[in-house]
Amino acid sequence: MADVSIICGSASDAAVADKAKKVLDDNGISWDYQIISAHRAPDKLDAYIKSSPCRIYIAIAGLSAALPGVIASKTDKPVIGVPVSGTLNGFDALLSIVQMPKGVPVACVGVDNGDNAAHLAIRILNLTKK
Question: Top-level CATH class of 4-129?
Fold first, then answer.
């Protein structure tokens, strides 16, 4: 069972995911990695969320960055969104992630900052150890 599920909306986001994987590996945290678009494969995303035993999601997406919010709307587990830089330097993705409606919380780290997403996931996991 992976503690953290890292989901990218596109294969082009893999470099950001690699940063998160390294931090998790360095800290002995198990992870699973998927590329599932909220727009192009919504049924696959639904099935994955329903079957995943993970404790935290790291959702990495650019442009409209709907992936973190879609995941948060389908689970009560923590979701950490990572905006990916693009044509607007990631500002569009950042706003898409932080402007969630009440009751659908998504934590957000800086643009392309997969490292901090993993560090935040570790801190959340550590809450259950105390």
Answer: alpha beta
